[in-house]
Design goal:
By secondary structure, the chain is α+β, with helices and mostly antiparallel strands. The protein is built from five helices and five strands.
Length: about 110
Amino acid sequence: MVSEDSFDSLFDFQSFKILSLAMKKPVTVQEISEKLSIPPATCYRKFNELVDKGLLVEAEKILVQKQKRRSSYLAVVEDVRIEITSEGIGLKWRFRDKPVEMWEAIKKIK
């Protein structure tokens, strides 16, 4: 599901902010680009990295013009806890419900 290299994404401030906002509700690249003042190309790259690492999933396609659609994305994790101890660094992931239940949660957000 989520690999250990996902840890790297959490220490990239822009990726952290994207993931944080996508935990609340589905977001589009354009929304995040404008809200965080991230260039669109950089924002697309960050979204792709988070999707590839299993931290974001496509929630829906939104019709924005006649036949133009944008994808919205939702974080698959509810929270991540980072523990730093004398034994090293540990991550505790808490995931959202199963995909079917997750889809039901997305519908309720609208």
